[in-house]
Amino acid sequence: MIVHKESQNWYGAASGYLKLAKDKLNKGEKVFTNIFVKDSMFDQPKKGPVIMVGPGTGVVPFIGFLESWELKSHIAPTHLYFGCRKEGSDYIFKEFLTSAKEKGLLTQLRTAFSREEKSQYVQDLLTEDKE
Fold first, then answer.
1. Sheet strands (E) in 6-128
2. Which of 59, 74, 44 is CA-nearest to residue 109?
3. Mind listing the domains of the chain with CATH numbers?
4. I need a labelling partner for 18 at 20 to 30 A (CA). Which of 81, 90, 108, 130 fits?
């Protein structure tokens, strides 16, 4: 990404760069940028079951699936296994995922927290549900 300011070019990754630009620009100044969208060859499953596993590496792509499926009335069984360290501080999408389960977008929501009193990992949940 390139941002132009008075014939000066600044280079950087999007989020960090925009923060840097915000700190260096005066209120009301404009930031011009190019946005490139790459078409993906990936196609979401149209029938299930769909098993999604986020073992502490992130759940955002799966949230995108859930939002898409809500618009398309996706009806296949969907299972999400998600893990992070602490429920209170790291499970930042708890409200969204709980709501998705309540709406029927998720057939099953299984969570594991590795730094809680009952330490558990995603692979433990998968082993429990292996049948």
1. 8-11, 50-55, 78-84, 108-113
2. 59
3. 1-37 (no CATH), 50-128 (3.40.50.80)
4. 90
